Amino acid sequence: MKRERLLAAAFIFLLAAVGCMGPPEGIEPVDDFDIDRYLGTWYEIARLDHRFERGMSNVSARYERRSDGAIRVVNRGFKEKSGAWESIEGKAHPAAEAGTGSLKVSFFGPFYGGYHVIALDRESYRYAMVAGPSRSYLWILAREPSLPKQTLDRLLQQARDLGFATEELIFVAHDRPEN
Questions:
Q1: Are 136 and 122 in contact (CB under 8 A)?
Q2: Radius of gyration (Cα) for the chain, nearest Å?
Q3: Hey, what domains does the chain have and what are their CATH numbers?
Q4: Strand, coil or helix: what is 133?
């Protein structure tokens, strides 16, 4: 777990150092975004590979209001190599004007990275697609551990159209009971 925290810290530091808070060029976060409806648990359906989640399955993220108004973020997953559950806690704040689907997220101190909701089930907040500051970071999330094929196919096509390398996506298994 310490290694994952160090990697996450290095990632956030790198993002902060190069000013990577905004979405990738040519991509806009959703508008009419309601952070309170976004709170709760999201399951990672697919992601582009990156060091701080490499080798993890059963990944989820929980978002809750903190007493200071910030958002508590708890990312959790099963590390296949060690056979253990790991989690990390961070915080998030809106990164843009109210109603815009951009957050700044930190897992260590003052270093924040951009988190941009670029697709969203606006009716019921059942799925979302999130980009980081570049096209190297993409997550497809859902309120359940799976998505209907038609919905997933539509999100994959949207990601391809936006220039993401969808052929490199990792589809995340959700096959272990949470403990």
A1: no
A2: 15
A3: 2-171 (2.40.128.20)
A4: coil
Alpha-carbon distance of 142 to 157, in angstroms, equals 17
Give pTM, 2 decimals: 0.87
Residues recorded for the chain: 179
Scan for tokens 């973020």, then name that residue.
73
pLDDT per residue as tens, the chain (179 positions): 555 554 454 444 444 434 467 888 899 999 999 999 999 999 999 999 998 899 999 999 999 999 999 999 999 999 999 999 999 999 999 888 888 999 999 988 788 889 999 999 999 999 999 999 999 999 999 999 999 999 999 999 999 999 999 999 999 999 988 76
Exposure string for 20-58, b = 16+ CB within 10 A, e = fewer = bbebbeeeebbeebebeebeeebbbbbbbebebbeebbb
3-state secondary structure of 92: strand
Place of tokens 């958002």: 71
